[in-house]
């Protein structure tokens, strides 16, 4: 896909923050909402932030970060722990305008610091030790709680080195309250903070400056810190803007976390497009999934990004007790942002809500990863150039269409290039042959912070015959099929199970998510969605009696653990997996909720304790 500027109304800027003053000074945009925060309370509170207000607030916070409040210097790393909301939006842009490197992290519960904490606390320790931030920005109340619990943790840590280390690191940081950064202060004479005004030079992040440390999801290992420059982020959101045909008339609804990946990128994408984005807390969606569609209806949203698990969650829990009727006819982009994307799941969702105006042509299966900022591709095209029908392969919808659109020049080189290659040789495979997905573009991140060997392995891949082009190895497996060269993302390489073929002999490769989906489908009323894990024990250090066995670990819904026919449930899982995928399951383990790890790496580590 080409991201060249396609309309004089959208002048490309080298960094995303440069778009803000451009929109703010236009009369039509000064009073236009850039972001709206939607609370799911009894009053349905809505708080708007216009482009002019956002630009002024960003300038004010940037001055305070570099002035007497923060006393930071350009290039310093800042740990961002503010609560989700409009303040966090301002802070993201303020860090870029101040020339700082933002390290956004979901703020863990301060009470956990004194009790050893959990995964969120471990991730905070990881971020502080790797990014070495100069300061941390959070809500005033959160700072007070951290100070109290960190102090008590130091006193009571004993032999708990992790607790003591985290407490010491938090105590050494300069803590800044968001409230203080928002206040207007008389600018000190001779201060080095950003100066506002039409003639003021821009002193924020340049295109080659690191503006973000974005952690990977940790799907196949410990989350890694990805180094993102302001220029690569700007390229990425310009590519996404054109791919989804976003413009100032677009209205986006997002409840995604604002700390990383798609949730963060859609903040940038909103400003680049001059659009309006309605934000809600992820917890509000999980508590009441129908809220998402109610916001789409209320604001006439044209675009909304969601993980694919949101669709069955709404179908299971979002139909009853509606607060408002739905009208989804304005929606052009129902962006599905993670894999696998099952055709049956999407079809069921569209059928359920087509009477409310939802169109199949709005379905936008997409692909992305942190190592390419976020966005890589989408299979969606505007209705003028597409019938809206997407083919499927192995039950999945495609996440990219690699053939150029009809309006493109025949020799046009895509700025985000996708190749499917033999992972051992780097040679491109023929269409129809499964291989590893590699991505090359100006959106490629610079590498992993503090991991030079992993950076060379992942970010410096070469395709034979492509002199000078570096590719990112995604670790995902895919296949290209059809005249329009649709890309199907089949799953993670680390999740592939090599199994004996019970029918034809030899070995075959099965992606674990197929087994997991079939297992859950056998009893969706008793098992927790997204909480089923499948493993091939042939790659694990098991005793000979368990070698080569496919194991399924499934979480039971609340109320199901204490009663019911568990043996029948296990037999049903085995039968469903054999019927759907032709895979023989040797072991089924039923566990309580919250037990199954959500990542491949942690599943491998925890498997032995399950079995």
TrEMBL record:
InterPro entries: AMP-bd_C_sf (IPR045851), AMP-dep_synth/lig_dom (IPR000873), ANL_N_sf (IPR042099). The keyword Transmembrane applies. It comes from the Eukaryota. The chain crosses the membrane at residues 264-287. Residues 30-449 form the AMP-dependent synthetase/ligase domain. It holds the Pfam family AMP-binding. Keywords: Membrane, Transmembrane, Transmembrane helix. This is AMP-dependent synthetase/ligase domain-containing protein. It comes from Saccharum hybrid cultivar R570. The lineage of its organism: Eukaryota, Viridiplantae, Streptophyta, Embryophyta, Tracheophyta.
């Amino acid at each position: 896909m080409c991201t060249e500027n396609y309309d004089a109304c959208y002048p490309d800027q080298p960094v995303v923050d440069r778009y803000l003053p451009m929109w703010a000074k236009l009369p039509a945009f000064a009073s236009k909402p850039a972001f709206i925060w939607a609370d799911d309370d009894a009053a349905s509170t809505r708080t708007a932030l216009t482009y002019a207000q956002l630009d002024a607030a960003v300038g004010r916070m940037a001055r305070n970060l570099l002035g007497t409040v923060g006393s930071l210097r350009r290039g310093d790393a800042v740990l961002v722990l503010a609560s989700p909301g409009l303040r966090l939006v301002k802070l993201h842009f303020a860090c870029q305008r101040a020339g700082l490197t933002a390290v956004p992290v979901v703020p863990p519960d301060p009470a956990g610091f004194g009790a050893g904490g959990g995964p969120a606390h471990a991730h905070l320790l990881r971020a502080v030790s790797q990014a070495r931030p100069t300061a941390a920005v959070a809500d005033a109340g959160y700072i007070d709680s951290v100070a109290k619990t960190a102090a008590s943790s130091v006193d009571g840590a004993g032999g708990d080195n992790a607790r003591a280390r985290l407490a010491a690191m938090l105590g050494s940081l300069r803590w800044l309250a968001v409230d203080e950064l928002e206040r207007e202060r008389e600018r000190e004479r001779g201060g080095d903070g950003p100066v506002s005004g039409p003639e003021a030079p821009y002193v924020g992040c340049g295109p080659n400056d690191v503006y973000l440390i974005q952690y990977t999801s940790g799907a196949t290992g410990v989350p890694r810190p990805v180094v993102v420059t302001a220029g690569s982020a700007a390229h990425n959101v310009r590519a996404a803007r054109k791919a989804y045909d976003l413009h100032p008339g677009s209205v986006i609804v997002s409840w995604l976390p604002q700390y990383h990946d798609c949730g963060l990128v859609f903040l940038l994408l909103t400003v680049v497009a001059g659009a309006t984005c309605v934000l809600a807390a992820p917890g509000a969606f999980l508590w009441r999934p129908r809220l998402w569609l109610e916001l789409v209806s209320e604001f006439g949203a044209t675009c909304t990004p969601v993980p694919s698990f949101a669709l069955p969650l709404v179908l299971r829990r979002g139909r009853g007790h509606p607060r408002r009727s739905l009208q989804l006819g304005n929606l052009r982009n129902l962006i599905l942002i993670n894999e696998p994307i099952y055709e049956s799941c999407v079809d069921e969702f569209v059928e359920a809500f087509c009477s409310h105006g939802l169109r199949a042509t709005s379905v936008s299966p997409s692909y992305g990863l942190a190592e390419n900022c976020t966005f890589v591709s989408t299979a969606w095209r505007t209705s003028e150039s597409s019938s809206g029908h997407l083919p499927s392969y192995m039950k999945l919808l495609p996440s990219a269409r690699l053939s150029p659109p009809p309006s493109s020049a025949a020799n046009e080189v895509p700025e985000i290039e996708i190749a499917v290659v033999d992972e051992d040789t780097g040679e491109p495979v023929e269409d129809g042959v499964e291989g590893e997905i590699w991505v090359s573009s100006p959106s490629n991140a610079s590498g992993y912070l503090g991991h030079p060997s992993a950076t060379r392995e992942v970010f410096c891949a070469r395709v034979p015959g492509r002199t000078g082009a570096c590719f990112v190895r995604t670790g995902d497996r895919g296949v290209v099929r059809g005249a329009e060269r649709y890309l199907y993302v089949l799953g993670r390489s680390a999740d592939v199970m090599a199994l004996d073929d019970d029918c034809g002999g030899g070995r075959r490769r099965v992606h674990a998510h197929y087994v997991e989906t079939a297992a859950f489908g056998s009893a969706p009323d008793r098992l927790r969605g997204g909480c089923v894990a499948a493993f091939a024990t042939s790659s694990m250090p098991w005793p000979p009696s368990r070698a080569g066995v496919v194991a399924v670990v499934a979480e039971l819904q609340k109320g199901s653990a204490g009663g019911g026919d568990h043996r029948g449930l296990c037999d049903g899982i085995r039968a469903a997996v054999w019927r759907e995928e032709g895979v023989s399951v040797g072991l089924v383990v039923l566990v309580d909720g919250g037990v199954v790890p959500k990542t491949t790496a942690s599943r491998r580590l925890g498997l032995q304790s399950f079995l």
